[in-house]
Automatic annotation (TrEMBL):
<feature type="domain" description="Peptidase S8/S53">
    <location>
        <begin position="138"/>
        <end position="450"/>
    </location>
</feature>
<dbReference type="InterPro" id="IPR023828">
    <property type="entry name" value="Peptidase_S8_Ser-AS"/>
</dbReference>
<dbReference type="InterPro" id="IPR023827">
    <property type="entry name" value="Peptidase_S8_Asp-AS"/>
</dbReference>
<dbReference type="InterPro" id="IPR015500">
    <property type="entry name" value="Peptidase_S8_subtilisin-rel"/>
</dbReference>
<dbReference type="GO" id="GO:0006508">
    <property type="term" value="P:proteolysis"/>
</dbReference>
<keyword id="KW-0378">Hydrolase</keyword>
<protein>
    <submittedName>
        <fullName>Peptidase S8</fullName>
    </submittedName>
</protein>
<dbReference type="GO" id="GO:0004252">
    <property type="term" value="F:serine-type endopeptidase activity"/>
</dbReference>
<feature type="active site" description="Charge relay system">
    <location>
        <position position="147"/>
    </location>
</feature>
<comment type="similarity">
    <text>Belongs to the peptidase S8 family.</text>
</comment>
<keyword id="KW-0720">Serine protease</keyword>
<keyword id="KW-0645">Protease</keyword>
<feature type="active site" description="Charge relay system">
    <location>
        <position position="406"/>
    </location>
</feature>
<keyword id="KW-0732">Signal</keyword>
<dbReference type="Pfam" id="PF00082">
    <property type="entry name" value="Peptidase_S8"/>
</dbReference>
<dbReference type="InterPro" id="IPR050131">
    <property type="entry name" value="Peptidase_S8_subtilisin-like"/>
</dbReference>
<feature type="signal peptide">
    <location>
        <begin position="1"/>
        <end position="28"/>
    </location>
</feature>
Length: 476
């Protein structure tokens, strides 16, 4: 039995009316392209939020000033300014020198007992060591989890010395009226996972790096990388792309020292991977011009892997339903399908029925690989909405069992931390190559076909089920 995955929808917008001259026909012919979602918004709304992309930050800022748009924030490293304005102002900005693309504030949603036997993760931790000489548990690596938030005081995150595995706890706070001006705030030890979809982020963080625990009934649990550190970046429950991009932008600017330059890496390791268990409903086309893609490509260039949940829209291969940014062909950007071991811990289970499929014959839309995502037990709180929908509350509701590609992606994020511990000098592309070249070829679902990158893949499960032992050996 599985519970349904929740959806998050509509954006709040301001309806203030301002005027500015409409571009001439000649100007329109030289206009920067509009994202499809934004084009639809302009036909419906008087005023909306836009990401103005420039050849550089100066060009984007100049265009914003010239067109009268209200500047909210910026992603400086990729030359994008977040603004708010009217239809006529947005169309005027299209014609300004150096503007390359205009993107809307698209709504997104979260994609909602870890099976370390099926992934051979437990075996890897028991039989392999990292470059630091410690058991292969992700130690020395931080994973940034961009999600609804985290309860850093949860017992699943309690380290042997009593401190929390959550070394940095941020909340992206957006303007309550427009939900567009989004800035990071340090939340310290506060629980940031208390909104309408509270519990999702705490569950996901536990799958990444929950510490080894034995509950009162004898149940033993741990995360994929029980030695890794966690950087939680809460984007709340009403997910919009500007808030999520603000989180990715923070990681881009701070991954080398997420707790600040004065905090040693031994206490707060560099971020080497982000987990992203959210996306638009129904998948969509890959947009190489989006801020999300520019940010994740910049992260890959600086040595950080980006992991995406493939989505929970199922499908039969007749169209692509996978999460668009996960379709990025850049090395080190991974899309994860959900594998179900049928509660056996074996490696010959099935693709979860809810796991989003790519378009049969168009390999760019396929997931990259599979990881356990069905009936996954991890940290929860009984009073949080997501946690009350689970299958089997344990330990007074501190743990629960939930399904979704949201649960598959953090398995891979934790495993990536293990691979970086095995080889700290590996590139994101090398990490991806090690993962997809060593997968277990479980046979349920669509047939495998030759992949242009090497090996074989399928539109429903990608290259197959992750094998941590084989991948850690391959990346050294």
């Amino acid at each position: 039995m599985r519970r349904s995955r929740p959806l998050i929808a509509a954006a709040a917008v301001s309806l203030l009316a301002l005027t500015i001259s409409t571009p001439t026909t000649a100007q329109a012919q030289n206009s920067a392209p509009l994202q499809g979602f934004l084009s639809q918004q302009l036909d419906k709304l008087q005023r909306t939020t836009v990401l103005v992309h420039g050849t550089d930050l100066a060009a984007a800022n100049a265009a914003v000033a010239a067109s009268g748009l209200q500047r909210l924030s910026s992603y400086d490293r990729i030359g994008v300014v977040v603004v708010e304005g009217t239809r006529s102002q947005i169309l005027a900005a299209r014609t300004q020198p150096g503007v390359t693309y205009l993107e809307g504030n698209q709504p997104i949603r979260v994609s909602t007992q870890t099976s370390h036997l099926a992934t051979r993760g437990a075996e890897a931790a028991d039989t392999r060591t990292g470059a630091n000489g410690l058991a292969l548990d992700g130690s020395g690596v931080s994973v940034a989890v961009i999600d609804s938030g985290v309860d850093p005081t949860h017992p699943f995150f309690k380290k042997a010395d009593g401190s929390s595995a959550v070394v940095k706890n941020l909340k992206i706070v957006c303007d309550p009226l427009s939900e567009t001006l989004c800035l990071p705030v340090d939340a310290g030890s506060l629980d940031t996972d208390l909104l309408s979809l509270g519990g999702h982020g705490t569950h996901v963080n536990g799958i990444v790096a929950g510490r080894k625990v034995t509950l009162a009934d004898g149940t033993k649990l741990q995360g994929a990388a029980p030695g890794a550190s966690l950087v939680s970046v809460s984007v709340g429950a009403a997910l919009l792309i500007v808030g999520a991009d603000a989180a990715l932008n923070w990681v881009l600017e701070n991954h080398a020292a997420p707790c600040g330059a004065g905090v040693p890496a031994a206490k707060c390791p560099p971020i080497k991977v982000t987990n992203n268990s959210y996306g638009p409903s129904g998948g969509g086309a890959f947009d190489p011009n989006s801020a999300t893609v520019k940010l994740q490509r910049a992260l890959a260039a600086e040595g950080v892997v980006t992991v995406w949940a493939a989505g929970n829209d199922g499908g039969d291969g007749t169209k692509s339903l996978t999460n668009p940014p996960g379709q990025d062909p850049t090395g080190g950007i991974l899309s994860v399908a959900s594998y179900y071991d049928q509660a056996t811990g074996t490696r010959d289970g099935q693709v979860s029925s809810f796991s989003s499929r790519g378009l049969n014959g168009t390999q760019a839309t396929y997931p990259d690989l599979s990881a356990p995502g069905e009936d996954i037990t991890s940290s929860c709180r009984i009073y949080l909405p997501i946690c009350t929908t689970g299958l089997a509350p344990l330990d007074g509701g501190n743990y629960n069992t939930i399904s979704g590609t949201s649960m598959a992606a953090p398995h891979i994020a934790g495993i990536v931390a293990q691979l970086f511990q095995a080889n700290p000098s590996a590139t994101p592309a090398q990490i991806e190559a090690a993962l997809i070249s060593t997968t277990h070829k479980y046979t349920n679902g669509a047939a495998y076909e030759t992949d242009s990158r090497g090996g074989t893949t399928s539109y429903d499960k990608g290259h197959g089920l992750v094998d941590v032992v084989a991948a850690s050996d391959a990346v050294r």
